[in-house]
Design goal:
Keywords: Calcium, Cell adhesion, Cell membrane, Glycoprotein, Membrane, Repeat, Signal, Transmembrane, Transmembrane helix. By secondary structure, the chain is mainly beta. The protein has six helices and 62 strands. β50 and β51 form a beta hairpin. The protein is flat.
Length: 1122
């Protein structure tokens, strides 16, 4: 499906296969399955489930009596989001409310409740606009509108108890159905047990086989054992494990080389001394096999999971070098053990930005043990590493709140006192149970608020708990039904398996317990050989000793110079002359000879460098050190003494600028150095020794003069315009600017800048260092009437030098501003019945231009003026005063509007207009009008008849009245002006309802006259009077109506009971028939004859057979072989 879009809400977790096929002959192929998991995105907005109007919009109307108290439940907004997870979490908020102090909305449940009681000044209709948002990163929302009408208690009597009655009835029905369901499930279990007992009793006898006992396989239970054979391919040996607790589904892990036993146990790999005790899985298998539990570890028997492949394996092949070579292999099973490498993750509380922070509100009047919230966390590890514990790291008041260690539940330890703070901060640490535990931190801010302000929040838990209980009840019903169906299917499956089960044939096996294990190691050594060389010392080759024999035992030693000497290399030679005689023993004498080499002027002075180079800044002070030249002479005395002087080419002008020290060779500044005059100098220096025949050497010193930024740029302004119109186009030239700098290089490069807050810029021209000052923004005289532009010219030297030049540019006015009104539209509240000709309001428009461009005149707009109002309004064209030429009546006209036009005197002239919305305010100029009772002649009189046996509170009639005024002026109150017997009848003040205050007595008159006064709520109240004649008659006529509601309710209850009885009987009959059918099927099953077996100590197994059962020769199917 190329280009298809996946929808999480449509099809979840699609998978597909990819086939790879080669081009060979024949072609081979393989395939792989790709599982695709679709992740949810917040692409579904919440959908309002209620309220919903008849046309499908999210609107509803609710009626509540005016006498309800604070906390009264009005209605509940229900919504649904098709997304999942966090994207489907919904929150409710009030976008608009007619009176925000009267109604509250629970944030997470959508419950609307009253925050206070109604007062006389509260309006009768209230509009609430509720926004429902989801919890996505980019939240989506939906809006619902609820209209709440506050009516009199009597009219809303039925509606006020509807929710309570329905809720009570639903709870009773749910409880009743739960009882019926529980009874049905109990009966089902009881009947199933009875059926299984009957089936077991009717089972034909099983003839057990007889076995011979092998000493290597002791059967401690003393009963026949059904054995399971597992063959290990390791040479010619077979190893078999036997035991009644080993299921038929046991298998060998592929490639395990017979060292791993797999049983269908869903635990992980187990080991340790506690796992070898009798009663554990390993202990029981060892007992059945007759194996010493202490040798299990030595024999490398392991229990691994047979379903969850949390291991991988590989083979190691060992091959010798013989001919032919032999090899064997071993399989290595690698089990991955869990380590504590995942820290706990906080699921709640979670803030909007994703951090583990939350805010909770509770009323201050809660008791100890009140549940505040619950911290939820998750650890991706398993086992002990995933066990989480919760602890309080920090609490503002540790005596006020507690944290349950393993559940994360936060509760109050005591009640709040007056001294307790309003905000409490709890820092909770969640740790796992690893050896090196990891942790996460959550922060909960708890605000203790007043009960009235937090009323909606104080009932949130109760409402949520009620909703959760309803959900729990629903899930209980579903669970009971599911368990019943599952149990029924299990019974049917067991019966089918029992009926179709084939006979079991037991086999016997031989056992070998030999296991070999070898290991070895080797060491690789490294050898290092060291060699040592020979040393020789040279002899003195400059002198030789010659002995001249003069006869008569007279010998003269002569020291002969063999090579010329160099004083600069060796200045002194130390020789030892030793004389030996010819006696015995030999006697000797030693003479020390010191030879001093004298100097001759054979070395000329030598400079360190033939060319010296130095950089010198211009304008340096006289005497500034420039450089020191150095020449050395290897001779000594006067032959090695050196004097310095300027060479012949450097005498003259250079000798005026520089001075040379004859002894030290230092060159210093003697005269002014100016870069602009000469940029470099070459000085020739001569060094001469003081020998008898002096020797000399020469070198050159190159002095490069470095420019110093000692000249400021010079700015010249030409062609300056003094005035520029504010509507000048972009790029208009204001002035020409020229800049010069006497320095060179960066010191002579100049940058010109302007302040950043001016609408001008400098543009370079074709000539170097010349600029044009032009406009680069639109001018507005009304904002800035003139500009003082400061031009800055700065060179690039170090330090940089700058020059400044200021010019003034004035902006001339253009008629580019319309007259502007300070507000649009105007709202005028005008009392009705005002005096004609009075000034009702004044409008003013301001024009930011100058002179005639700013002169404003006013007139009424002709295009938008109500034609009915035109003759009754007038405006002063100069000051904008508006006059009413007539008085207005609220009952005739409640609102109207007109336009005022303001126009300036510029060329061309500009104008603007403003709309004036006029609201006529009501005055109490209309008296109440009696609607009922009204007699045939039109007077406010009426006659009512009531039975004499009515009780106190009986409704007689209702006086209805109407006031043409609105608001407070139309609020009506009723009072008794006169009554024949004031103790018998009462009048409700705001509804006009007449009720009996007590029952009639024999002495009460039959006719009673009531005079009712109806007053409005104006400052000067107006009133009307109605007369009601009440006749007390016998009660026979009203008898039938008094019992109507009771009869209807009794009939409905009888119908529900009848249907429940029918349902209970049907379910009972259905289960009874099912059990009877199962019993009949079991009784009609043919008998199963078990085979008999003989036991052989050694079982022969054919090569290649992995599972074999040895049967007797009497078995017709196996014929004694497998």
């Amino acid at each position: 499906m190329p280009g298809a879009r996946f929808q999480l809400e449509g099809a979840r977790d699609p998978d597909f296969q990819v086939v790879a096929k080669d081009s060979g002959t024949p072609s081979l192929s393989s395939n792989v399955t790709v599982n695709v998991f679709i992740l949810d995105q917040n692409d579904n907005a919440p959908v309002i489930l209620s309220p919903v109007s008849a046309n499908g919009s999210a609107e509803g109307v609710e009626e509540i009596p005016r006498n309800v108290n604070a906390g009264h439940s009005v209605t509940k907004v229900r919504a649904y989001d098709a997304d999942i997870g966090y994207n489907a979490w919904l929150s409710f908020s009030l976008q608009h409310a007619t009176d925000s102090s009267l109604f509250g909305l629970e944030r997470y449940s959508g419950h609307i409740r009253t925050l206070r009681s109604f007062t006389e000044t509260d309006e009768a209709e209230h509009k609430l606009v509720i926004v429902v948002k989801d919890n996505g990163n980019v939240s989506l929302s939906a809006t619902a509108t609820v209209i709440i009408n506050a009516v009199e208690p009597k009219e809303a009597f039925a509606a006020s108890d509807t929710k309570s009655a329905v809720q009570t009835e639903e709870e009773d029905n749910v409880t009743f159905y739960l009882i019926i369901t529980l009874g049905s499930v109990s009966a089902l279990f009881l009947l199933s047990i009875i059926g299984l007992i009957v089936m077991q009793c009717s089972k034909p006898p099983d003839n057990s086989s007889k076995y011979s006992r092998d000493p290597n396989y002791a059967d401690t239970s003393g009963s026949g054992t059904l054995c399971h054979s597992i063959q290990y391919r390791s040479g010619d040996k077979r190893y078999m494990l036997v035991g009644p607790r080993m299921s038929i589904g046991s298998a060998i892990v592929p490639g395990s080389n017979g060292n791993t036993l797999v049983v269908p146990d869903h635990r992980r790999r187990i080991s340790g001394e506690e796992e070898l005790q009798i009663g554990t899985l390993v202990g029981n298998i060892a007992k059945d096999l007759g194996i010493d539990r202490g040798t299990i570890a030595d024999r490398n028997l392991r229990i691994v999971t047979g379903t969850k492949q949390d291991l991988f394996q590989f083979q190691v092949v060992a091959k010798d070098s013989g001919t032919p070579s032999l090899s064997s292999n071993v399989t290595v099973n690698v089990f991955i053990l869990d380590q504590n490498d995942n820290a706990p993750v906080i699921l709640s509380p979670v803030s909007a930005n994703g951090s583990a922070e939350g805010v909770e509100e509770i009323p201050r009047n809660v008791n100890a043990g009140h549940s505040v919230t619950k911290v939820r966390a998750y650890d991706a590890d398993i086992g002990y590493n995933a066990w989480l514990s919760f602890s309080l790291q920090h609490a503002t008041d540790s005596s006020l709140f507690s944290l349950e260690r393993y559940s994360g539940h936060i509760r109050t330890l005591r009640s709040f006192t007056e001294t307790d703070e309003a905000e409490h901060k709890l820092v909770i640490v969640v740790k796992d149970n690893g050896n090196v535990s990891l942790s996460a931190t959550a922060t909960v801010i708890i605000n203790a608020v007043e009960p009235k302000e937090a009323f909606a929040a104080s009932d949130t838990k109760s409402a949520v708990q009620t909703e959760e209980e309803d959900n729990v009840t629903f899930y209980l019903i579903i669970t009971l039904g599911s368990v019943s169906a599952l149990f029924l299917l299990s019974i049917i499956g067991l019966i089918v398996m029992q009926c179709s089960k084939p006979p079991d044939n037991s086999s016997k096996y031989s056992r070998d317990s030999n296991y070999a294990d070898t290991s070895g190691s080797g060491t690789l050594c490294h050898s290092i050989q060291y060699r040592s060389g020979d040393k020789r010392l040279s002899q003195n080759e400059n002198f030789e000793l010659k002995v001249e024999d003069l006869g008569e035992n007279n010998k003269i030693p002569v020291l002969v110079l063999l090579k010329p000497l160099d004083r600069e290399r060796v200045s002194v030679y130390e020789l030892i002359l030793t004389a030996f005689d010819g006696g015995n023993p030999v006697r000797t004498d030693v003479l020390n000879i010191s030879i001093i080499v004298l100097d001759t002027n054979d070395n000329a002075p030598v400079f360190d460098k033939q060319k010296y180079s130095v950089t010198l800044s211009e304008n340096v002070a006289i005497g500034t050190f420039v450089i020191q030249v150095n020449a050395t002479d290897l001779d000594s005395g006067d032959n090695g003494a050196v004097e310095y002087a300027f060479g012949e080419p450097s005498r003259g002008r250079l000798s005026e600028l520089f001075d040379l020290d004859r002894e030290t060779g230092e060159i210093r500044v003697k005269g002014p150095i100016d870069f602009e005059e000469k940029r470099s100098h070459e000085i020739n220096v001569r060094a001469m020794d003081k020998g008898h025949v002096p020797l000399a050497a020469h070198c050159n010193v190159f002095v490069r003069v470095e420019d110093v930024n000692d000249n400021k740029p010079d700015i010249e302004i030409t062609s300056l315009l003094g005035h520029i119109p504010e509507n000048a186009e972009l790029g208009t030239v204001v002035a020409l600017v020229g800049v010069t700098d006497l320095d060179s290089g960066p010191n002579g490069q100049v940058i010109c800048t302007l302040p950043e807050n001016v609408p001008f810029e400098l543009k370079a021209t074709s000539q170097t260092n010349f600029y044009s000052l032009v406009t680069n923004g639109y001018l507005d005289r009304e904002q800035v009437s003139d500009y003082v532009i400061e031009i800055t010219a700065r060179d690039l030297g170090t330090p940089a030098l700058s020059s400044f030049e200021s010019i003034r540019v004035e902006v001339s006015d253009v008629n580019d501003n319309k007259p502007a009104f300070p507000q649009n539209p105007y709202t005028l509240y005008l009392l009705e019945n005002g005096a004609p000709g009075a000034c009702i309001m004044s409008v003013t428009a301001h024009d930011s231009d100058l002179n005639e461009n700013a002169q404003v005149s006013y007139m009424l707009g002709r295009d938008f003026v109500d034609t009915n109002i035109t003759p009754f309004l007038n405006i002063n064209s100069e000051n904008g005063n508006i006059y009413a030429l007539k008085n207005f009546d609220f009952e005739t006209m409640k609102t109207f509007k007109f336009q005022v036009v303001a126009k300036d005197s510029g060329t061309p002239s500009l104008s603007s207009n403003v709309t004036v919305n006029v609201f006529i305010l009501d005055q109490n100029d209309n008296a109440p009008v009696i609607l009922s009772p009204v007699s045939a002649n039109g007077s406010a009189e009426g006659v009512e008849e009531i039975p004499r046996n009515v009780n106190a509170g009986h409704s007689v009639t209702k006086v209805r009245a109407y006031d043409a005024d609105v608001g407070y002026n139309a609020w009506l109150s009723f009072s008794l002006q006169h009554a024949t017997d004031s103790s018998l009848f009462g009048l409700e003040r705001y509804s006009g309802q007449i009720r009996t205050l007590r029952s009639f007595t024999e002495t009460d008159e039959a006719e009673h006259k009531l005079v009712i006064v109806v007053k409005d709520n104006g400052n000067v109240s107006l009133s009307a009077t109605a007369t009601v004649i009440i006749n007390a008659v016998e009660p026979k006529e009203a008898f039938a109506a008094s019992d109507t509601k009771s009869a209807v309710q009794t009939e409905e209850e009888d119908n529900v009971t009848f249907y429940l009885i029918i349902t209970l009987g049907s379910v009972s009959a259905l289960f009874l028939l099912s059990i009877i059918g199962l019993i009949v099927m079991q009784c009609s099953k043919p008998p199963d004859n078990s085979s008999k077996y003989s036991r052989d100590p050694i079982t022969q197994t054919r090569p290649g057979a992995e599972h074999c059962a040895t049967a007797s020769s009497t078995d017709p199917e196996t014929n004694g072989t497998c």
